[in-house]
Amino acid sequence: MFQHFSILQRTCLPPGIGGCPVAPRILSLTGIKWKVMPEEKKNFSAELKKAADAAAAEAGIVPPALDIVQLNKGDKVGTWKISKKLGEGGFGAVYLVTDMTGKIEGEYALKAEKATESVRVLKMEVFVLTELKKANAKHFCDLLDRGRISVYNYVVMTLVGPSFHDLRKVYTDKDKQKFSLGCACSVGIKCIEAIEELHSVGYLHRDLKPGNFAIGKADPRKVIMLDFGMARKYIDAQGKQRAPRWAAGFRGTVRYAPLSCHISRDQCRKDDLETWLYMQIELTRGNLPWKSIENREEMGRYKERCRGEGIKELMGGCPKEYVDIMLFVDSLCYYTPPKYALIMDLLKTAISVNNLVEYPYDWEKATAAVAAGGPGASGPA
């Protein structure tokens, strides 16, 4: 029988407050009310400001959009030549480039952002990718170059293939937009490997979603984690885990955000895993039951409800091992080191007991059909 933990019981609490169980100073989802112990009040002003900033964001008071760096075909950035724009978004712009010196063959991705931006996304990207490269991590882009030209900063990294978000749109049933179960479980294992690698170098991602995982450009079975603009180092200079802040602004994408975000608690390794699980469920069944909810507070209550009477709404169409994964993730506290291998073993069990086949992946099948000119030959090769 599924055991229902309340959101207060599962919330990761700072040391000295009883660890992970219920504690009196917690944010309520119903009204965002604070209960602060007297000894805390003198240290609470900064945290209240952060909470106010989060409330402003929820009310629609958002910072101005990034001033996108516009480069044209043929422009030169250091030793790199612009071939075309690949895309742009909240992170800035991405361009396809080649090395003009001839020392580096092939095409690469160049990200650029104005040096005047208050939030330095590329700076965090460089920090994270540099540490991952030192650790020989296998689920990430390789950082080739970085620098500043005039009024903007840039980084150059390896290209990737389509994101999970794009793969769902192109290579799956247009109505269901889900991966086959064998494919979903297999890529889920690789996502957990990537999360473990990221955590091992001391960083949280804080915005895991289908758009931030992609397959390799040359290897369709390789899974690559992307975009570290919202990442945060959770280890201090002495290698110890940072103590949680009393309140933290909302970080991430609301649909996949962990319960901690909905009550303005600081995120930990557990929260990356919870966010991944929501993504994993969506890839498996095609949607999340709170997809149509727009109010962030209401969505948080719905996520909590899915821990109890709403469990079937969330897990319908998923193997029972997903419930075991959620129970495990929900049992973790702020300082608890996750057992990543346990999650991967549960996904492997789901593959085994359901007699699933991992390979070829769904997009490999579709590509083969396109090459053969057979059924499913619509869409890019």
Automatic annotation (TrEMBL):
Residue stretches making up the Protein kinase domain: 80-357
Keywords recorded for this protein, A-Z: ATP-binding, Kinase, Nucleotide-binding, Serine/threonine-protein kinase, Transferase
Keyword hit for 4Fe-4S: no
Annotated positions binding ATP: K111
Highest taxon in the source lineage: Eukaryota
Single GO molecular function: protein serine/threonine kinase activity
Cited CDD domains: STKc_TTBK (cd14017)
Keyword Signal among record annotations: no
Organism: Panagrellus redivivus (Microworm)
Family matches, as InterPro entries: CK1_Ser-Thr_kinase (IPR050235), Kinase-like_dom_sf (IPR011009), Prot_kinase_dom (IPR000719), Protein_kinase_ATP_BS (IPR017441), TTBK_Asator-like_STKc (IPR047916)
Protein name in UniProt: Protein kinase domain-containing protein
